[in-house]
Amino acid sequence: xxxTKARRGIPYKRKLEGRTDYKKRLSLLKSGxxxxxxxxxxxxxxxQFVEFHPxxxxxxxxxxxxxxxxxxxLKGSLKxxxxxxxxxxxxxxxxxxxxxxxxxxxxxxxxxxTTGSIFSALKGVIxxxxxxxxKEVSKxxxxxxxxxxxxxxxxxxxxxxxEIKNKIIK
Length: 170
Prior knowledge:
Elements: H1 4-8, H2 13-16, H3 22-29, E1 35-40, E2 45-51, E3 58-64, H4 66-71, H5 81-97, E4 102-106, H6 117-127, E5 131-132, H7 147-150, H8 161-169
Parallel strand pairs: 1-4, 4-5
Antiparallel strand pairs: 1-2, 2-3
Helix pairs in contact: 5-6, 5-8
């Protein structure tokens, strides 16, 4: 009996590490639309618009929640729900200027928590005017956070989220 590993080859390094689900990636690439990649780190939210090219993926536009602190003078957490929404709104405005009209979301290998900051960023991108393919269960059971959470009413330390939202929209 032959060695099955030699016959099939060694799997990709990212697959072995559990960092990439290639079946899911292929289904996203088949759509032919740019991908909206939303990632959350320990401090920041990062949003990228990426196109597939045979030589490698090309980042069309990238936005981080750090820009909220630098350009819009946001003090406080840069990874909570209101900050994620504002980052999504800012990313959508940048991508809209780059003529991106429609994207498909790529939320990563881990299953994101509905009504969390990832979906808050997704709502920000949708509110900026970019069509994002997503599934709504019903009006009562939305994947997006409630409006009072997006506005930061649930937070102890109130920030100037409304003012920053108006600056981004202009």
